[in-house]
Design brief:
The structure is a homodimer. By secondary structure, chain A is α+β, with helices and mostly antiparallel strands. In chain A, 20% of the residues lie in helices and 46% in strands. In chain A, strands 4, 5, 6, 7, 8, 9 and 10 form a 7-stranded mixed sheet that branches. A 3-stranded antiparallel sheet of chain A has the order 1-2-3, with no helix packed on it. The longest helix of chain A is centred in the middle third of the chain and has 13 residues. Chain A is elongated, with a radius of gyration of 19 Å. Chain A starts with a strand and ends in a 7-residue tail after the last helix. Chains A and B meet through strand 1, strand 2, strand 3, strand 8 and helix 2 of A and strand 1, strand 2, strand 3, strand 8 and helix 2 of B.
Chain lengths: 183, 183
């Protein structure tokens, strides 16, 4: 049994996630301090459009400050603490891709980093897209990159796609659409 | 362009990850403070044993303090800052499952949470297991649960497995072994 005997707030990221410092007492009597991210959750979007050459996903090239590099990933965004999940998905899709979608299909939930953070990610397939931009965050550097789903599935297998939420969103989408890429 | 104008250390988790607070200047002149986790990286293990009824994976039921619940996941562990990746994989396998493996096959790398953390995870398939326990961390509550690979693949698709690193490790393993589960 692990018991929390004390906690304090270490850091609050604007009105979003915060870092809490817990003092824990272990079964053997030892106490330790452990930091934990309290996170409001996030949505991950798979914006899909049909083309003459097969289904395409609107991917992003996004500069990730903490990595110091631009990476390939699905659109995603942090939920407001009291925000409805579907409304969050609709808002983030417009902010990050400039599109709205007629249909949102849930593709399950993820814990990206349960050793450090309680963040829960909700995946959505977004279909029947049309232009409807909203201004994005000014601290995000984003470029939209449409890519074919079959190429992305191959990148999930060969390791060229490294972002965890994106790998799972792409593979669940291919499975949902019943695309017969042999596992 | 986003420029870092200042940084400080907010928290150091024992000799492991630390939280840095960056002051950033955006292209439009606005400055903001953003916290970033500096992480030494981690290994994710897929310990596989052949049985008369098909391949089995040694999964864990692990209590995750930050989630307040026990979850199903692959064995994994944080690397020491200067530790060799393969030595880390060998050590964590013995600590968390009580087994050594004769062969470790890399299955690619992941970023679990690139919005907050620079953590890189290296996946390994671990085969030809034999008992060789090492003492684990006293702050970890772990139970080993052998499960059939085909059942785990199904849990990756239907959403019953929610831990991101585990979903990707299981699916890459099935793909590597060329198990014909239709995607």
């Amino acid at each position: 049994m692990i018991k929390r005997t004390h906690f304090e707030l270490l850091w609050q990221q604007e009105d979003s996630w915060r870092l809490r410092l817990d003092t824990l007492q272990l079964a053997n009597g030892r106490t330790l301090q452990k930091a934990a991210v309290e996170h409001p959750g996030a949505v991950v979007l798979v914006p899909l459009q049909q083309t003459a050459n097969g289904p395409q996903i609107l991917m992003l090239h996004q500069y990730r400050h903490v990595l110091g590099q631009t990476i390939l990933e699905l659109p995603a965004g942090t939920r407001g603490w009291d925000e409805d999940w579907l409304l969050c998905a609709q808002r983030e899709l417009r902010e990050e891709t400039g599109h709205r979608a007629e249909t949102f299909t849930p593709l399950g939930q993820l814990w990206p980093a349960p050793g450090i953070s309680d963040e829960l990610m909700q995946l959505y397939l977004a279909e029947n897209l049309s232009p409807a931009p909203l201004p994005g965050d000014d601290d995000e550097l984003i470029e939209i990159v449409p890519m074919f789903l079959d190429e992305l599935v191959e990148m999930c297998w060969n390791g060229r796609l490294q972002d965890a939420k994106s790998i799972i969103g792409i593979l669940r989408t291919a499975r949902h659409l019943n695309i017969q890429t042999s596992l």
